[in-house]
């Protein structure tokens, strides 16, 4: 194991020397972000190799408008909000789920089917599942929606906020941040969509894309592969997460996503409106769409004053360049979502990287 | 005939001070904790101690679930307070026991908890010498809350404390970390790791007193409960006199604990323990401490995990990771964690 790490580290150093300029590699997965920080990978890299965290944390990329819709629903007596834990403390215009709603009508769940179970148990409430996440959590939401349809559970619906990774990467390279030299591609998402999906980034934008798992050794080896490609002037698609990720991905999961959802234009924090980047329920399942049921609109929200999470998500600034970081904004009193989520870039910087 | 009419669940009236309270104490509590001082049921326990140099501590226990793999709230209530004395170089002598019971708790549950308290106290060599029982309405407590206070006699000539720590001192733990917290969290969340996880809940005073009595170079000791190893190490550097570095590869962690923590996104360094202490010892005595720990059932996997550094500009706890990287270890803020002790 140590041999593999040392080899990869040597390979990175040699390749960086050959490149002879600053290299910027972006990871677009919150779990990668945390693993990189927790294992101290940054401290082992040459100074010319810069790692940027991109729009990979599902809670962080969720637009403020969506958060405020959730908070609005939480105020209703006839609703129960079922959410993954990370969303609980995300600040909106008027507090967070933790502060602005009674605890009784906000439930933390570990899966979408737990949310459906809440609906079965609370016939007097409409259970709204806060359906956020990338292609990784979308299949589970689809399963719950299908089950609700089969069983006729009418007091269940989802507030659709699922996002697609590829449109965000294209939006970045298409203008938001074209300084990114290559991508460390997300392991979990690739399990679902297959590593072949990233081929378009390689062909259309000439950026190396390497899929890796979350063990530090895999991440370092992926970085080494990317650096070698850049040194050779190559841009290729590669997965080193061989045991888990296939080129075509999980077709059963893809099918259930396609059966229940269709892509639509969507709003992202920091990235704004991106074409065909979010998932909305298709017609046979639209009765389970909370936006439709409550006559709500998914529109961009007012950004939080002083919060630069959007720029952090695009890799345009590092968290410490935000004036609020560590001062007005800490994990105990977060201002923006990147400081809330355990996968958020600011939280990772604060927890593992802050030195004074 | 009387026995048949006895309620199977605790009633509010059991805390009323009348006949039912008396029955509760005589039939259910005393038999489990029997000792001469307690049996007198005086307003105060009378203790004749060998020394007037004492340590005195208290802690409350609200763990949910009440029973978990490796322990229960009763065992925890005895061990936790015994450990607070033990790491302060005091030999535990006597505990108080205050029960706040929610009306509706099954007697069978209470009996199991009391039996566990009695058993753990006997094993730890302490007596429950006085106590109190209150009942509260349904919904006002989660089954049962327990408070224990403990008194211990200080070992002569031993005076551990943060101010004793010097650069170069070694940092030692008596075994794997994170076991208790991950057991509780996994059991609460139902994530299916239960069978592989077990709380480390244990009374450490015998081991800690053996260490203090045999090794003169023990500078400081603390049990790593809430906030885990990270909290203890950060408390150490807070005064700013020195820094701390630890090595990831040397920290004992069970694979199942690591796997459960990874799955839920927790850092094992922040996870609670109930049978682990952190000791700071002089470099020349580290080996002897390890050997005493390893000869004892509660220190088989003891390890030196790092050392104290001369005062840096910013006093930090720094972790040398397995891959040769470095990162800081923060004081945990983990509000998401459920009640674990």
Keywords:
heterodimer; A: 356 residues; Rossmann fold; five-stranded parallel beta sheet; four-stranded parallel beta sheet; 15 helices; globular; B: alpha+beta; 60s Ribosomal Protein L30, Chain: A; Phosphoribosyl-aminoimidazole Synthetase, Chain A, domain 2; 2 domains; four-stranded mixed beta sheet; 31% helix
Stretches of chain A where pLDDT is under 50 for at least 5 consecutive residues are none
Structural class computed from helices and strand pairing of chain A: alpha/beta
The CATH architecture category of the largest domain in chain B equals Alpha-Beta Complex
The average pLDDT value of chain B, as a whole number, equals 91
Largest sheet of chain A: 5 strands, parallel
> DSSP helix count of chain B?
10
Given the C-alpha coordinates, what overall shape of chain A results?
globular
| Gap from first CA to last CA of chain B | 40 Å
DSSP strand content of chain B: 15-25%
Oligomer: heterodimer
Q: Count the domains of chain A.
A: 3
Strand order of the largest sheet of chain A: 2-1-7-8-9
Rg of chain A over CA atoms, rounded to whole Å, is: 20 Å
- Structural class, judged by helices and strands of chain B? alpha+beta
Q: What percent of residues of chain A adopt helix (DSSP H or I)?
A: 25-40%
Shape, principal axes of CA atoms of chain B: globular
What does this structure look like?
The complex is a heterodimer of chains A (356) and B (341). By secondary structure, chain A is α/β, with parallel strands linked by helices. Chain A is built from 15 helices and eleven strands. Chain A folds into three domains: 2-58 and 165-239, HypD, alpha/beta domain 1 (Rossmann fold, 3-Layer(aba) Sandwich); 59-164 and 257-293, Rossmann fold (3-Layer(aba) Sandwich); 309-348, no CATH class. Chain A has a five-stranded parallel sheet with strand order 2-1-7-8-9. In chain A, strands 4-3-5-6 form a four-stranded parallel sheet, sandwiched between helices. Chain A has a two-stranded antiparallel ribbon with strand order 10-11. In chain A, helix 1 packs parallel to helix 11. The longest helix of chain A is centred in the first third of the chain and has 18 residues, at 2-19. The model of chain A has no long low-confidence stretch (mean pLDDT 91). In chain B, the strands form three sheets. Chain B has a seven-stranded mixed sheet, sandwiched between helices. A four-stranded mixed sheet of chain B has the order 1-6-4-5. Chain B folds into two domains: 2-154, PurM-like, N-terminal domain (60s Ribosomal Protein L30, Chain: A); 162-328, PurM-like C-terminal domain (Phosphoribosyl-aminoimidazole Synthetase, Chain A, domain 2), CATH 3.90.650. Chain A binds chain B through residues 5-6, 9, 34, 37-44, 85, 110, 216-217, 220, 331-332, 342-343, 350-356, and chain B through 189, 191, 265, 267, 313-314, 316, 319-328, 330, 333, 335-336.
